[in-house]
Design goal:
Length: about 210
Amino acid sequence: MKRGRLLLAAALCLSCTPSTPADPEPGDADALDLERMLRQARYAPYQPSELFQDGAVMRRPPEGTVPHDRVTGDPGLTRGVAGGAYVTRIPVPVTLDLLRYGKQRYDIFCATCHGIAGDGESEVARNMTQRRPPSLVDARAQAFPPGRIYQSIVQGYGLMRSYEPQIPLRERWAIVAYIKALGRSRAAALDALPEPLRERARKELP
Ligand code: HEC
């Protein structure tokens, strides 16, 4: 063990470099260079300049440059809007799992205001003095394209704040899908239900 360590230390020392040079004394060529760079004539942002053809000192990024912090990808998927219009189809596969996930997220993030049933009936709504959270399942809201609901999550809507930082992309679409299902379930004809569910609904519904 000890021997191993010694060998290692010896090996490391083979690549040792001489100690770094001392800081340059005033009057050194290096120090003068730094001084010159600090004091040289330079442009401030947005200043005009004859140096470039367009007369501006600030350069445009080359065509097609993508900022590293931009969310890229299909805007229909990331913003809910494509070609200036709300997307009319949910752009992820709508599965039973997605709907269950959407319900769980909806109950956490939206139901406090828009109500567990999505009808705008909630404790918060009853106590609001300004505009109340509207129903998300009445005929008016059912006509919303999915992209509109998605956008309200990302951007907020009027008094409602944005939930973009709290709810990631897949969760947003899951919530949208659940709200759509919730709305549809309220207007579903009994005959449209599969047989076992139809029986149960007949017994349990008033
Ligand atoms: C703190 C309460 C609150 C929460 C939580 C909340 N909302 Fe809202 N929401 C509102 C209010 C209030 C409005 C109406 C704002 C206005 O008219 O200025 C609104 C409006 C909306 C609208 C627009 C309806 C229309 O008429 O166009 C949609 C869609 C919506 N909310 C969806 C959601 C979704 C989805 C969630 C969960 C991610 C959510 N909201 C969470 C309070 C809330």
